[in-house]
Predict the 3D structure of the following.
Amino acid sequence: MDVLLTGGAGYIGSHTLLELLAEGHRILVADNFANSSPEALNRVRELSNRDFRFARLDIRDRAALFGLFEAFRPQAVIHFAGLKAVGEGEARPLDYYETNVSGTMNVLEAMNAVNCARIVFSSSATVYGEPEYLPLDESHPCHPASVYGRTKHMAEQIILDWSRARPGSGGAILRYFNPVGAHESGRIGEDPHDVPNNLMPYISQVAVGRRAKLSIYGDDYDTRDGTGLRDYIHVVDLARAHVAALGYAAARQGVEVFNLGTGSGHTVREMLRAFSEACGRDLPHEVTGRRPGDIAACVADPAKANRLLSWRAERGLAEMSRSAWRWQSENPDGYARRA
Ligand SMILES: NC(=O)c1ccc[n+]([C@@H]2O[C@H](COP(=O)([O-])OP(=O)(O)OC[C@H]3O[C@@H](n4cnc5c(N)ncnc54)[C@H](O)[C@@H]3O)[C@@H](O)[C@H]2O)c1
């Protein structure tokens, strides 16, 4: 298929790009590098030995977006582009609404203009808010507790309404749990520009000496060892889910929502131990108080994706840690320094 990837230079986008190229799809990546580097795209070219098109573009720029859609005329869009830092969203809400909500509307309008009727959208488990029960299935109510979560939930609603008003359209809304790890080559991975918001990149940066120690926010939760438990999914498993979702959406009408996780969780201490094994040494850490708003546990029920997408997360914690360590140790400054 001719597929346009917004945000395709980012962490999840670059891994998905590699999988789509391997399947023979023709791709155009549109990214403004707000949180990524052109080097990620160079490395995907090198790893895949295939070429793809690229446009440096901001999805908030409607005219540029419409021009790009006219020129490429995609059959489907995978819409990764967005801002994703929860704390930053609270400080800069309008930027988050503009990029994540208005940006998504621009993408849908540009799709309408060229009769493109298939979309796969990057959403997040954060749309659920505090769990009323676990594991979370797709019919769990959504009460997002952050600006970021609300932007994702609004974008979901807009996509569902768009599709209802456009007979023949279809798509998949993918609610990711906690993507971690990197491609086994160690050539592409997660490269946060600022202080990492997520556990695994933070641990990686401690391991490589960029950060002094890991703070464990609370060890008195009702979990196996008292530390917070989350459903971590290997980014390559996640990337493959996009290939499956694209095929699913292409063959059907209507938009379906899917949870993408493993269905089981790991605690902060388990993540730390697995990463210490991968890098061969104990890592400095300290237990501090709970962070406001944090919850004890969050785990996906991925049964719907397993069943309808014929997809399953296959990579375990050791592979997540090994691949993350390989990426971080071979690229201590991410894409800034060419390995
Ligand atoms: N990584 C996670 O933990 C996680 C979890 C759930 C959902 N998501 C969602 O998945 C998507 C991809 O996440 P990621 O982890 O790969 O993040 P990322 O920041 O690495 O990738 C996002 C990409 O979008 C680009 N971008 C941002 N604003 C843009 C704009 N206005 N115009 C064009 N490009 C723009 C960035 O430069 C980047 O390449 C995001 O929408 C994110 O909200 C991520």
User: Anything to note?
Assistant: DSSP finds eleven helices and 14 strands in the chain. The pocket of nicotinamide-adenine-dinucleotide is lined by residues 6-7, 9-13, 31-36, 58-60, 80-84, 99, 103, 122, 124, 176, 178-179, 198 (CB under 6 Å). The chain has a mean pLDDT of 96.
